[in-house]
Each structure stands twice: as C-alpha cells, then as structure tokens.
Specification:
By secondary structure, chain A is mainly α. Chain A has 3 helices and no strands. Chain A is flat, with a radius of gyration of 21 Å. Chain B has a two-stranded antiparallel sheet with strand order 1-2. The relative contact order of chain B is 0.15. Classes of the chains: A mainly alpha (108), B mainly alpha (236).
Amino acid sequence: MANHTTVDYQAEKGAYYKVLVGLLLLTALTFIQPSMFLTNMTFGIQMLIGTLKAWIILMYYMHLKGEKLIGWTVIFAVLVVVFFFSVVIVDVNNFQFADVSYITSPAK
Amino acid sequence: MAHDSHDSHDSHEYVPEIAVDRNGKEHVVQGWQGDFYGAKLGFWLFMLTEVLMFGAMFMVLTYYFTLHHADFIKASSELNRTLGGINTVVLLISALTMGLGLLKMRSGDVKGAKLMIWATMLLALVFLGVKALEWTNDFKEGIFLGLPTMQAGGGKSFGELLFFGMYFTMTGLHGFHIIIGIGLMLWLLKRINSGKVSPEHHILHFNIALYWDLVHLIWVFVFPYFYMTGAGAIHG
C-alpha cells in the first residue's frame, strides 16, 4: 500500500520557515535573558524557553499537530517524566545524608 | 486458504504474505514500508525509550544540581557559550533542511529531497566539528575526563567534577546520536537511489526525519542546562 500524500511544496514550505524564525527568536531570547531580565531566575526561564521550543518542534516539525493517539502517548510519557522529576526535587530538597553519601562533598 | 506462491519460489520476485480472516477473505499483510501509520507509531515508541534514557540522565543532573548549586553554576560559566550557541543554530537549520527534504520527497521532487539530505549531513558534520573544537579547547584548559585536574584533589570542587562528568557524558551521548543520524541519512540516500524509498513509499524518510528532530529536541534542553545556567554568574 502506498503512503503517498500529495503536498504542494511551495505552499507548505512557508510553515517550515515560520517555525525556523520562531525557534531562532527563542534561541536569541535564550542568549539575552541572563543579562537582560529575570536574572535571578535564569535556570527556570531557560527551561521554560526550552519547553516552548520543544513544543513547537513536536507540533510542527514532528507533525504531532492533529495526531491524537501518538499525541496522547507523548503527553502521557511527559507526565510520567514530570511526576518523577517532582518526586526527585522534593526528595533532594530534604536530603539528610550529606555526611555519609557519595554524591555530596566529602565531610571535612 | 493459503496463497500458493511456489511458482516464484526460486526468483527474487516480491511475494506478498497473505492472511485470511474469519470469513475466508484474503488480505495482503503489509510490511513496514507499506504500513505507514504502524511504522510511524512503532518509531514513536522507540523514540520514547530515548526520552526515557535522556530523561533519567536529566534527573540525575537535576539531583546533583540541587545538591551542588553554586558549583554547577561556576562550572557552567567555564563552558564556551559561543561555540555551544553556534551548534544550537547549526542544529536548528539542519532540522529545517531535513523537514524541507521530506516535504520535497512527498511532493515528488526526489532530487531536491536528496540535496536536502546532503545539506543536513553537512550541517551534522559541522556540528561535530564545532564540538570537537570545543572539546579540544576544554582539554587544553585541563577540563577533560581522566585528566589530573579532573581527579579528586586536582583543584576542582566535588560539584564541579560532577558537572563536567555529566557534561561529557551527555554531550558525548548526544554526539553519538548525531553520528548515528549521519549513518541513517547515508542509508536513506542508498535506498532512495535504489528506488526503495520514493514519494509513494517514504516512511523511512519520515522516520529518519523524526529521529533527527528528536536529536534536535534533546539539544534544546542540553544546551541551556549546561551552557546557560552559569550565564548569570558572568552577567550578574
């Protein structure tokens, strides 16, 4: 069975260039943010910009827009990752074994 | 009723596999090249295992980052942000050429699609070249796995050593994915030249484009995590 889908290259390439411009602008934002705004929240802002870029790539370059089954599979996977990240962050913020662990600075 | 294909047994002619449903009706079993959605879904499941692997590494990184916050920011500020930024843009443009190549293939322009794949490969090589230059500079500055300066008591704090350990592991693994991607693109070109990938059967091209986007997607998080978290340490 062929999987040929007729597309008009000239008509559709515009969307790819728009996505490129959007990603370039976000990349520029990545560079200027640490010296321009919210400088005390650099890590959080950088991850936010990264998430936005990832969403654009997933939707447009990876063709997830309009994909229900695969889209929900990806959302589920991301939620699992977010859940485990949350658990890790809560856990590490209450780290109680600095004196005996191998992942903290050796006891002086 | 099984399909009798013994007539063509000795030839290399493609013989479709036939399955029979409960009503006795025959159906041609689709191979991965013919089952577009199945091949796409299968590849997405593979990519989720990649997300699992890198996700676990990011989780370890987050754990260490929380425990050694100041050391990580100091170590991050030592990385070459310009070279990392150049690679970010190179990878971004390569995602565009890969996407346009697929679009050209789907619109029937096979020659144009091949040109775009070559362009993507060239950009991938540029990425590796910049990465090699960056690692060479790191080595000269005493930042590389195994160097005496990267051992306990070598002048760097424990948190910095953890940061650089994760940096070389994750960017190295990402670079390995770039090399695999170049190999996949060469294989794709071979199959296009032999007519096995065409505008009518382009699932391999589609999936390799997905793979390349995943490699780009991983870099979207690797870059700010390693290179930008320490940017505030310089700019204030």
